[in-house]
Fold:
Amino acid sequence: QAQLVESGGGLVQAGGSLRLSCAASGRTFSTYTMGWWRQAPGKAREFVASINWSGGNTYYADSVKGRFTISRDNAKNTVYLQMHSLKPEDTAVYYCAASAVSGITTVSYEYNYWGQGTQVTVSS
Structure:
């Protein structure tokens, strides 16, 4: 059974950094586009970042561009989200997702697998 498990969330002060990891198991996701999404309390889930199968193409939401970096290690079946200069508005549950679509996608229904999420809380 394919599974995505996020880790690395926590409480951090504004301006701080966190690195999220997403470990995949049950199948190889090396050919999948991977993405990070987030959902703040009372808000809809929103796209954060996406990376294609090779890692050669990435795309970010404007709200995180220049502060977050998505990367992947296909040998470890793991995707990362490095977050710097965190702001209170980055507080959310962060989800890892995998899409069989070729190339970058920012559309949630094009993601076939989702993790359970990891909480990120940024204090002011």
